[in-house]
Amino acid sequence: MSARVLLSGVLDKPPVRLTSKAGKSYVRASARDGNGPDAKWWTVFVFSETAAEALEALTVGEAFAATGTFDATVWAPEGREPRVTLSMSADAILSAQAEAHEAKSGVSSVAVSAVEHRRPRDRL
């Protein structure tokens, strides 16, 4: 069983497109959740092309939301206090830019993401 998370944060470092050992393209980015000493830092991995394009359209400091599975590990370097490392594999990205794109094109990026992953959309 995988736990899921809904991250609401800001882009801390620009997204980087990488290639896995298997030859598949993915995007990695760094996000900050919160401010000051209570801020949490996340590494966000995106494998869906639709979500990757939405993440790549963001600029550093821009707010976004991401949903997907997450992993929390303890990093304990010798002589230093241990800390938690947070990462997630996002299958959907939502931002104000996505909303602006949706208004211009008439296509919902969330709907495209849901179709891409073959998930049924909620019915009202």
Topology readout:
Blueprint: E1 4-19, E2 25-33, E3 40-46, H1 49-56, E4 63-75, E5 83-95, H2 96-105, H3 109-116
Parallel strand pairs: 3-5
Antiparallel strand pairs: 1-2, 1-4, 2-3, 4-5
Structure report:
There is one protein chain. The chain is an alpha+beta fold. The chain has one domain: Nucleic acid-binding proteins (OB fold (Dihydrolipoamide Acetyltransferase, E2P)), CATH 2.40.50.140. Helices cover 21% and strands 47% of the residues. It has 3 helices and 5 strands. It has a 5-stranded mixed barrel. The protein is globular and about 40 Å long. The C terminus is likely disordered.
**Assembly state:** single chain
Task: Please name the CATH topology.
Answer: OB fold (Dihydrolipoamide Acetyltransferase, E2P)
Strand order of the largest sheet: 1-2-3-5-4
Structural class: alpha+beta
Radius of gyration: 16 Å
**CATH class placement:** Mainly Beta
How far apart, in Å, are the first and last alpha carbons?
A: 28 Å
Question: Biggest β-sheet, characterized?
Answer: 5 strands, mixed, barrel
By DSSP, the count of extended strands is 5
Determine the fraction of residues in helical runs and give it as a percent range. 10-25%
Indicate the mean pLDDT. Answer: 82
Brief rundown of the structure:
This protein is α+β, with helices and mostly antiparallel strands and 124 residues long. It contains three helices and five strands, in the order E-E-E-H-E-E-H-H. A five-stranded mixed beta barrel has the order 1-2-3-5-4.
